[in-house]
Amino acid sequence: MKVGLFFGSFNPVHVGHMVIANYMLTYTDLDRVWFIVSPHNPLKQKNTLLDEKQRLQMVQLAIGDNSKMKASDIEFKLPQPSYTINTLAYLKEKYPNSEFVLIMGSDNLESFHKWKNAEEILKHHELYIYQRPENRKTALMNHKKVQFFDAPLMELSSTAIRTAVKEKKDVRYFVPPAVWEYMREMHFYEK
Fold first, then answer.
1. What is the tally of structural domains in the chain?
2. Could you give the C-alpha distances from 79 to 6, 90, 94, in angstroms and in order?
3. Which end of the chain is less crowded, N or C, counting CB atoms within 10 A of the terminal residue's CB?
4. Looking at the domain assignment, is residue 113 inside a domain?
5. Is 169 within the bounds of a domain?
């Protein structure tokens, strides 16, 4: 089974994330997409993150009954901060018959060389890249393990959603309906 790993803070998960996951399932050779909810991305400030279990819950709500998608808390059990190389080693050991591919935006590809053991990741895993609005050239553009896909382009970010909620703007169509209801019920990002 070929599994696409979509890493992120998902703070909150939004329709852009869901469109990309659906695109990757529909237009590539992936059998499944797992949303790997990161408790702490080493390249992001931890104090801006909603609790990891609440972010996982929002991803589960966004996925609903789609059996080809899964919300994963695998990184909650691993040492912090989360490094992709460690997560991949753990997954390979736990699921030896699965092939894991990383799904990421072209903006992340630019900083990929900063990731812990980036060369080792590329040696054993493919990267499926979706274009981002601020797409720039990177040294890895022609790497044999890097494939680019024309997923729909959306200028939507979790940061912008959090800011809009704080400013009491209506963002109900920026996130899946069940996520919107949960955010309102829990008063997430209002302060």
1. 1
2. 19, 11, 17
3. C
4. yes
5. no
What count of residues does the chain have?
A: 191
14/114 Cα distance (integer angstroms): 26
The CATH number of residue 72's host domain is 3.40.50.620
Q: How far apart are CA 28 and CA 5, in angstroms?
A: 13
Domain annotation covers residue 162: no
pLDDT tens-place values along the chain, 191 residues long: 999 999 999 999 999 999 999 999 999 999 999 999 998 665 556 566 899 999 999 999 999 999 999 999 999 999 888 899 999 999 999 999 999 999 999 888 888 999 999 999 999 999 999 987 666 666 787 889 999 999 998 889 999 999 999 999 999 999 999 999 999 999 999 98
- Residue 28, in any domain of the structure: yes
> DSSP letter at 3?
E
Q: pTM for the full model?
A: 0.92
Peptide bond into 177 cis (omega under 30): no
Domain that holds residue 46: 2-155
Amino acid at residue number 127:
L
